[in-house]
Design brief:
Helix content: over 70%
Strand content: under 5%
Radius of gyration: 32 Å
Shape: rod-shaped
Structural class: mainly alpha
Number of helices: 4
Distance between the termini: 33 Å
Length: 114
């Protein structure tokens, strides 16, 4: 029975039974509405991601961030040393470091849980 139907039934019962039963009817109606609210909250909680799953997601993301940082620093350092040793003009390393920074920023800001 919908909320509107419940309210109509309570008002109709109040008319039929009179004001002596008004408190009992109101209490019964509020109890049913409370149960309906609880049911809807339970449905939403069941559909929402679990805190345990989110904690696991956060740990995974932390590990991925660390791995990306280590790999980025290693590749950037190797590229910088290689370009410095084998290329007289050392300015070629600037775009490499810019690309590394962009990749790290996009990875760390672009993947958020919904």
């Amino acid at each position: 029975m919908s909320t509107g139907d419940e309210l109509r039934a309570a008002v109709s019962a109040r008319r039929d039974l009179g004001p002596d039963f008004e408190d009992a009817l109101i209490e019964s109606f509020l109890d049913k509405m409370g149960q309906e609210v609880d049911r809807r909250v339970d449905e939403r909680l069941a559909a929402a991601p679990k805190a345990k799953d989110m904690a696991k997601y956060d740990r995974t993301r932390d590990g991925q961030r660390l791995a990306l940082a280590i790999v980025s620093l290693a590749l950037g350092t190797i590229a910088t040393i290689s370009l410095t040793l084998f290329n007289e003009g050392g300015a070629a390393y600037v775009p490499i470091w810019i690309a590394i920074v962009v990749v790290n920023v996009v990875f760390n800001n672009g993947h958020r849980p919904r």
